[in-house]
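Raw record, unedited: Sulfotransferase domain-containing protein
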Amino acid sequence: MGVHIMCKDSKMEREAVIDQTMARKQKKSDQAGRAKVGIPSRGVRKSTNSVELVAPSEKRFRSKVLASVGLDDDDDDSYDKCEDIEEAGSHRLDNKIKSENKRRRGEDKASENLELLEEEDEEDCEYDALDQSNSTSTTRCSTLKPICNNFLWILLTVAAVVYIFYDDEMLEESETDEDVIQKQQPYSYNGYVDARIPTDDEAQFGGGLNDVGAALPSQDDDDELAKEMINEFGHHHDPTGIVEVDILWEQLDGYAEISEPLDDHDLPVFWHIPKCGGTTLQDMMSHCFGMIEANEVGKTHVKDELEIITLDNGNRYVNVDLSNPNGIEHAKDLGFGASGLANVAITSWFHDTASLFDDDIHRGRCFAFVRHPIRRAVSLFYYLKDATWEHTYSDVYKEMDLEEYATSQYSEDNWMTRFLTNQMSGNVYDRHLDLAKEVLESKCLVGLMEDFSVSINRFDHYFGWSQRDFGGPVSMANRGTCVARVTQHPDNAHPHPKVEEDGEVWNMLLKKNKYDLALYEHARHLFYNVQSDIVS
């Protein structure tokens, strides 16, 4: 260490002296060179014509400098040795520093690796905790899954039972929002989905509670007959709010399909639509053809057993009353459908009458006259104003004009559609019209009042009336004359003012009977295009 320090000090002294001496020599040389023009700087050779100044060699220059300060070249060699020693020491120091840095870098890297390992351990711990949690959740789910499945099946079973057996009124209360109600789809019929019907209207259907289809007075009316009819109506037709299509078709099983061959045990059933020529047809069948009828005439002779009654004019009837549901039920209890006593049954209660035929042998065969619903409604109104002999007559009609009637609760509301679908209260919708069309097409032979004679001939040809002797007051030879007389002088014909088509009153009635109008157009299609082939 001492030698190194001594060499270092000597070196510093020599270097300082050399630097000072060389600086002075250089300064003098530069001054001498500038004094002469064209002389380049030291160390640059010019052409032979210029003065050449060559710097002394480094070795001689160094020797002179050393001599001037009392040193020689040997000292310089010593200096070189000291310099070598110093350089070697410097190398050792550098190596030591490098080793130290390398060691520190190793420690830093080890520390960094340790930190990474610690972080990974922490993450592993977190994942282990999460895995443990997931495992616990999976175990819980696997334990609860059978319980959940069983609970779900229980809920579904309860829902099904509630749907099938729950009271209809509770269903209506639970579905008060009409927008929600319209999204329900309890059944699909002929491509028409959404069968739930809101029953938010309190107005009861006013038409068709009797053989003339008169509307009902309100419940506040003091008329005892009106109250009796209201009670009777409510008893037999409780509004459900749902079109139960399967049940409806089951109820109609008592009617044969029109396209099926006629059987001797089948009983013709005339579906009497008010003010469509039904009374005239009844007179024709009972008097001209001599058929034994079952309608409302026999109600004055109702007993606990069936029998045939004969009036003074020779017309014959079975002692039943088919003009109301109670009378139909009583006739059913007496076994009227299978009795074979009547040649034709006449009623407005299409669905109730089907229950009379409850076996596979005796069935009903429906036929009906159809009329434009607006013209029929106008005719009915003017008839009810004067028909004091009808048991449904009320002074409320006598004080009305046609416009008041059209906007009142007493005017009819899609009478045919309601009776064919058994929707006797509440609203009717497109689905009811679709159903009514199918029922009419499959179960009823249609006649048109505006084409009365052709319709009578079609009924006669279908049922074979002209080929049978019913034993009535008119002989078979005189039937044609009798039919012509009845046709020219129809019963219950009531002259009345005409209503302007597309006028205000017309449109009022049309608004309340739009489904019946569509059903009437369908009946015309059946009459002219479909059922003519069946009869022929």
